Amino acid sequence: MIVLGVESSCDETGLALYDTERGLLAHALHSQIAMHQEYGGVVPELASRDHIRRAIPLLKQTLADAAVSAHDIDAIAYTQGPGLAGALLVGASVACGLGLALDKPVLGIHHLEGHLLSPLLASKPPQFPFVALLVSGGHTQLMRVDGVGQYELLGETLDDAAGEAFDKSAKLLGLGYPGGPAISRMAEFGDPAAYQLPRPMLHSKNLDFSFSGLKTAVLTVVKRHNTNICEQDKANIARAFVDAIVEVLVAKCMSALKETRLKRLVIAGGVGANRQLREALNAAAAKRRYEVFYPELQFCTDNGAMIAFAGAMRLREQPDAAKREYGFSVRPR
Ligand code: KG4
Ligand code: ZN
């Protein structure tokens, strides 16, 4: 079975073809980062318009790269939400328009399920069950995953998501958008002893997170410098921020593994690309003989491959989940 995946929830247009027998056949992605950069964040209207411009050329490229005819597609999976309403509508209309034209069934996929299953696209995928840490721009969740569709929420952020904390703190430091990679690079040059920032909820008895206080702490330190903040100060603050957030994320993952008595940890979502987080997780897991799995770097942030894959996994469990019903709806929240 060949599933076409369409992702357009935020600022990446992603198309991919996944074959349940041969694996990922091809995928194509266009990132709008350069377009939104001058505004310091994603401008929803610009995002929607760009998805419209990119979707069909990327679809053609994906079909050509996979050497597959559109008629060979068995089902079309698209991101139904959460995400920006206008952006989601573009992907949904592309998927449903194609479905109607080609007489193929379509199914809506939860964006987070796409992220959650993305480590299974790797050459050495984890076996179920596992604990998953989902760290993206909009979400921070710990889940117990027993199989496709079998997800138990163990804990989540009470306010900002981890990626949001990265982005907002980077903005406070005058680093560009997206802030995650920028603050991470800056932190490499920082002195770890220069500043101490809070580790919110590190010792709470549950698996929930809270990151808005950390961002406020960054703001307080930045304000203390007035306008004459030098590059070294910025690097020191970046280092303190990264150390704090990484320590909390790692500690909560270890607690989740201990609580569930599972031995496998899977990281998904954009922040999963973070080098400092990966190093700290690998070290903590090795000490306790846990295994950690990551998606390939290219599949950490938004992409069509994870949506095609999630669609294929859903259809394997429930073949009638895709329908020839094209009155699509999106679910931004
Ligand atoms: O999963 P994703 O592409 O989109 C959402 O579904 O939100 O995640 C984007 C988030 C952004 O907040 C971005 O700053 C963060 O992931 N991110 C990183 C890194 N790469 C992306 N954060 C820290 N370090 C990185 N290397
Ligand atoms: Zn995402």
From TrEMBL:
<dbReference type="GO" id="GO:0061711">
    <property type="term" value="F:tRNA N(6)-L-threonylcarbamoyladenine synthase activity"/>
</dbReference>
<dbReference type="InterPro" id="IPR043129">
    <property type="entry name" value="ATPase_NBD"/>
</dbReference>
<feature type="binding site">
    <location>
        <position position="302"/>
    </location>
    <ligand>
        <name>Fe cation</name>
    </ligand>
</feature>
<feature type="binding site">
    <location>
        <position position="167"/>
    </location>
    <ligand>
        <name>substrate</name>
    </ligand>
</feature>
<dbReference type="Pfam" id="PF00814">
    <property type="entry name" value="TsaD"/>
</dbReference>
<dbReference type="InterPro" id="IPR000905">
    <property type="entry name" value="Gcp-like_dom"/>
</dbReference>
<dbReference type="InterPro" id="IPR017860">
    <property type="entry name" value="Peptidase_M22_CS"/>
</dbReference>
<keyword id="KW-0808">Transferase</keyword>
<keyword id="KW-0479">Metal-binding</keyword>
<comment type="similarity">
    <text>Belongs to the KAE1 / TsaD family.</text>
</comment>
<feature type="domain" description="Gcp-like">
    <location>
        <begin position="24"/>
        <end position="309"/>
    </location>
</feature>
<dbReference type="InterPro" id="IPR017861">
    <property type="entry name" value="KAE1/TsaD"/>
</dbReference>
<feature type="binding site">
    <location>
        <position position="274"/>
    </location>
    <ligand>
        <name>substrate</name>
    </ligand>
</feature>
<keyword id="KW-0408">Iron</keyword>
<dbReference type="InterPro" id="IPR022450">
    <property type="entry name" value="TsaD"/>
</dbReference>
<keyword id="KW-0012">Acyltransferase</keyword>
<protein>
    <recommendedName>
        <fullName>tRNA N6-adenosine threonylcarbamoyltransferase</fullName>
        <ecNumber>2.3.1.234</ecNumber>
    </recommendedName>
</protein>
<feature type="binding site">
    <location>
        <position position="180"/>
    </location>
    <ligand>
        <name>substrate</name>
    </ligand>
</feature>
<feature type="binding site">
    <location>
        <begin position="134"/>
        <end position="138"/>
    </location>
    <ligand>
        <name>substrate</name>
    </ligand>
</feature>
<feature type="binding site">
    <location>
        <position position="111"/>
    </location>
    <ligand>
        <name>Fe cation</name>
    </ligand>
</feature>
<feature type="binding site">
    <location>
        <position position="115"/>
    </location>
    <ligand>
        <name>Fe cation</name>
    </ligand>
</feature>
<comment type="function">
    <text>Required for the formation of a threonylcarbamoyl group on adenosine at position 37 (t(6)A37) in tRNAs that read codons beginning with adenine. Is involved in the transfer of the threonylcarbamoyl moiety of threonylcarbamoyl-AMP (TC-AMP) to the N6 group of A37, together with TsaE and TsaB. TsaD likely plays a direct catalytic role in this reaction.</text>
</comment>
<keyword id="KW-0963">Cytoplasm</keyword>
<keyword id="KW-0819">tRNA processing</keyword>
